[in-house]
Design a protein that fits this description.
The complex is a heterodimer of chains A (405) and B (410).
Chain A (H helix, E strand, L loop, with lengths): L2 H11 L1 H41 L2 E5 L15 H10 L3 E14 L2 E10 L1 H7 L6 E4 L9 E4 L1 H6 L7 E7 L5 E12 L4 H6 E5 H8 L7 E5 L6 H11 L3 E5 H4 L1 H8 L1 H30 L1 H9 L4 H36 L2 E2 L8 E2 L2 E2 L3 E2 L5 H27 L3 H6 L2
Parallel strand pairs in A: 3-8, 5-7
Antiparallel strand pairs in A: 1-9, 1-10, 2-3, 2-6, 2-9, 4-7, 5-8, 6-7, 11-14, 12-13
Helix pairs in contact in A: 1-13, 2-10, 2-11, 2-13, 2-14, 11-14, 13-14
Chain B lengths: L1 H9 L3 H39 L4 E5 L15 H9 L4 E15 L4 E9 L1 H4 L9 E4 L9 E5 H6 L7 E7 L5 E12 L4 H4 L2 E5 H8 L8 E6 L5 H13 L3 E5 H4 L1 H38 L2 H9 L4 H36 L2 E2 L1 H4 L4 E2 L2 E2 L3 E2 L5 H27 L3 H5 L3
Parallel strand pairs in B: 3-8, 5-7
Antiparallel strand pairs in B: 1-9, 1-10, 2-3, 2-6, 2-9, 4-7, 5-8, 6-7, 11-14, 12-13
Classes of the chains: A alpha+beta (405), B alpha+beta (410).
Chain lengths: 405, 410
């Protein structure tokens, strides 16, 4: 039996209905492709931001530092460890931390002081390149500091302003000095935005009287590196120290990233249920329209499986036509949004999810699954929707069918 | 007569009409579920944000938004708060001093956000006071005791009864310090609060900062209906101005939360419109088929003198009945669905966990539905218009029928 040409002809017999059905499926598919791309893009960007801006893939601390941070719990000889890591192929940077009070004019704010080596930090992390205004630190200008976005606002500070920093140095004395704002960062993370104040390592050591050691070593890995494998290699190199992955440092973020599909799938399924109802209706109407024909076919000896398959083939052909159309507009759009993205600036000035800054331009990310997930799910659901009408056609009684109407 | 004919025509093909009703119910239920769950979630986040921070509407000193600092105050806040509380739609108004400080112990120091309040009037109102897990509440407005977050307690190695030094700048810009003891520790699960916020008695803070008896940084206003925030901020503006203040809604005070909610709403809106369009396609198909198979009938009706306009109206009336029955069935079905979502909600903690923070506000993984009449009316109206719109093209086709051609159809 020439199933395919019969199915084709049947579709063309009800042009308007077939067209409406195919169009509905095509629109649904196209939008699902774009949506999948956008969701993957958002999650991918969040992960990249969290890791590459500030947290790194892996962090090293002195034993007990994470549990209860203190200026006294330091990693000894951080320079040497960073060099060893570099030789093993890991980009690393070390940091010093302390808390203090920053004041400018009548405003003051509690700040989280961060001493970094400007060049090392710029090589390892993206934060130094993420400036809203001004420039990054320079080791020849120890009096220059860089402020987090919101901190600058709280202190009403702009480039060139002088800031007083007051704190308690490691030897118990009052640490007190004057600095100049050299740069203001874009939105990085909740903590950096609100209280982040960056200074050079030398300036920090001077102010806080911390002559040796570092509080944190942060390591970034190449894009596709195996996180756990790297973590164990690094643990071996950092004997006596605590090594943590970004997943351990921000479990809420890790959970959200892992659950990303849990956001995506319900929406895809719901959309396709709506589509499935359209198909069910259309195929049911198609079958009932031609119920006499099917009756005659069966009377002539066509077996139920062939009838079933005939109806199924109609659906598959329509779905394929929809796939061509839907992908035809969905995939280029998804690619366009990969490079151009959706501008979120009218909605937000910069907000955070799980403490990580959300990019102001929402980019999509296109990969095999951007196409495969919506496409396969479409086929699965339309085939399932066709089972009832196809079964009805396959198992009807020829005598009753021919007498129908 | 058209009404009766239309109604009968609807049921001539039971199966098809029922499948169409199912798809209408699906679209409607989806819209109701999404909308009410989102409304519940946003409402919950807004309330949390308001109670954790600065109320649904905040009265703060003029110019504070641009240049926050302890030198800007709202005066006579006691009198102001009384007047605010007397206004309609206001649940409560509390007086606060907020600012930044450094908290230090002999071991270490850290930056802190100070919220100084009147412990008595804030019991049960201020979110953080409901989450005190160790120790006690503050007893008076001037004692030298504070409540800190569990994160800060850990960082500074503090326990109940231990001392810490608060250093900040006062009203004139001088650096001042005060020695206090830990009376209680709160824990919310949100790092931004647990590691950072210190609750201080308000009169003690006034002394430290050199404020007079009734000066404060803000009056936090809590509303009966959080959706009035924008409107109430306008109503309160003149009153606030009399005391050197301005009134701002929570969306201005917490733009992060407002931004996220806005983006989420828009996403939801697009999605629901999209689903409605798909449902509409299905309805179009159905009504179209219903028309196409009756072309001969229409041909005869037109031949015996029915006007095309009346025919058009008959098809539209069929569609109208479809809409009425569809909405009726959908509404009935949505009642138990809504009731369940309102009472029990959907627990997303299984895949999202309990610590998700959006825009600085803790997101409650248990999503419960909330019903807003204007949203429900929007959904009703939307579905109704959608169904009627789906009938337009088939009705047009029917009215355009040429009797001679269609009567030839067997």
């Amino acid at each position: 039996m020439k199933t395919w040409s019969m199915a084709f002809r049947n579709i063309l017999r009800a042009k308007r209905r077939s067209m409406i059905t195919i169009l509905a499926m095509a629109v649904a598919l196209g939008i699902m492709v774009v949506y999948t791309g956008l969701m993957d893009g958002m999650i991918g960007d969040m992960k990249k931001n969290a890791v590459m801006l500030e947290m790194g893939h892996v962090q090293i601390h002195a034993e007990g530092y994470r549990e209860s941070p203190s200026i006294y719990k330091r990693i000894q000889a951080p320079d040497e460890l960073v060099e060893r890591l570099a030789k093993a192929g890991y980009t690393a940077s070390y940091r010093l931390f302390a808390s203090g009070l920053a004041a400018r004019g009548n405003s003051s704010a509690g700040v989280f002081l961060r001493g970094v080596a400007p060049d090392m930090e710029a090589e390892t992390m993206r934060l130094p390149h993420h400036l809203l205004a001004g420039k990054w630190l320079n080791k020849n200008d120890p009096k220059d500091i860089v402020l987090g976005k919101r901190l600058a606002k709280t202190l009403s500070a702009s480039l060139g302003d002088e800031i007083v920093i007051v704190s308690q140095a490691s030897d118990g004395s009052i640490a007190n000095d004057l600095y100049r704002v050299d740069g203001i960062l874009k939105s990085i993370s909740e903590e950096v935005d609100r209280a982040g104040l960056f200074m050079t390592i030398d300036a920090f050591r001077d102010l806080m009287v911390v002559t040796q050691g570092a509080h944190e070593i942060v390591i970034t890995l190449p894009e596709d590196a195996d996180l756990n494998a790297a973590a164990s290699t690094i643990t071996n190199m950092a004997q006596g120290l605590e090594v943590s992955t970004w997943r351990q440092l921000n479990p809420a973020l890790a959970q959200m990233i892992d659950a990303a599909d849990a956001f995506l799938l319900p929406l895809v399924i719901i959309t396709y249920i709506a589509v499935a109802i359209v198909i069910l209706n259309a195929m049911l109407m198609a079958v009932f329209e031609r119920i006499r024909e099917y009756g005659v076919m069966k009377a002539l000896g066509v077996n139920p499986y062939e009838v079933f398959f005939l109806v199924l083939t109609e659906t598959i052909i329509m779905t394929t036509a929809a796939a061509v159309l839907g992908l035809g507009f969905g995939v280029p759009l998804a690619f366009y949004l990969e490079t151009h993205g959706i501008n979120l600036a009218p909605f937000t000035e910069g907000t955070t999810i799980s403490g990580v800054a959300l990019d102001l331009i929402w980019h999509s990310m296109v990969s095999a699954r951007t196409i495969l997930i919506p496409l396969v799910t479409l086929y699965v659901l339309t085939v399932i929707a066709t089972i009832y009408p196809a079964a009805k056609a396959a198992y009807l009684n020829p005598v009753d069918a021919i007498h129908h109407h | 007569m058209i009404a009766r004919m239309a109604w009968r025509n609807l049921w001539r093909n039971r199966r098809r009409t029922i499948i169409t009703l199912v798809s209408i119910a699906f679209g409607f239920l989806l819209a109701i579920t999404f909308t009410s769950l989102s409304d519940g979630s946003y409402g919950q986040m807004i309330d949390t944000a308001a109670r954790m921070g600065t109320g649904h509407v905040t009265i703060e000193p003029q110019g504070y938004r641009d240049k926050p600092g302890p030198d800007l105050v709202v005066r006579d806040t006691g009198q102001l708060a009384d007047k605010v509380r007397a206004m309609p739609g206001i649940e409560n108004a509390t007086i606060r001093i907020v600012g930044q400080a450094m908290a230090a112990t002999s071991a270490d120091s850290t930056g802190a956000g100070i919220i100084a309040l009147d412990p008595e009037s804030e019991q049960g109102v201020f979110f953080l006071l409901n989450h005190v897990v160790e120790g006690q509440q503050l007893a008076s407005r001037e004692e030298k005791k504070v409540i800190i977050g569990s994160g800060m307690a850990r960082c500074l190695d503090l326990n109940l009864g231990k001392k810490l030094v608060l250093t900040t700048t006062d009203k004139t810009g001088e650096i001042v310090s005060g020695l206090v003891r830990v009376a209680g520790i709160f824990s919310t699960g949100v790092d931004e609060a647990d590691k950072y916020i210190i609750i201080v008695p308000i009169d003690y803070m006034r002394k430290l900062l050199g404020y007079s008896k009734n000066e404060a940084t803000q009056v936090a206003v809590y509303l009966n209906d959080r959706r009035d925030a924008e409107e109430k901020s306008h109503t309160l503006a003149p009153l606030a101005a009399a005391y050197d203040g301005t009134a701002l809604p929570w969306s201005v005070m917490m733009p992060d939360v407002a931004g996220l909610i806005l983006m989420d709403s828009i996403g939801n809106y697009f999605f629901q419109v999209f689903i409605f369009l798909l449902v509409g396609a299905g309805i179009l198909n159905t009504v179209l088929m219903g028309v196409m198979e009756r072309l001969r009938e229409f041909g005869i009706m037109l031949a015996v003198g029915m006007s095309p306009g009346k025919l058009w109206r008959m098809i539209m009336t069929e569609t109208f009945w479809l809409a009425v029955v569809g909405l009726l069935v959908s509404s009935v079905l949505s009642v138990p669905v809504y009731w369940y979502l309102h009472k029990y909600g959907i627990d997303t903690s299984a895949w999202l966990g309990n610590d998700q923070v959006y825009g600085g506000v803790l997101f409650d993984p248990l999503m419960k539905a909330e019903f807003y009449l204007d949203h429900a009316i929007l959904i009703f109206g939307g579905v109704f218009i959608l169904i009627l719109a789906a009938g337009l093209y088939p009705a047009f086709l029917a009215a355009r029928t040429r009797p001679v051609e269609t009567i030839k159809i067997l």
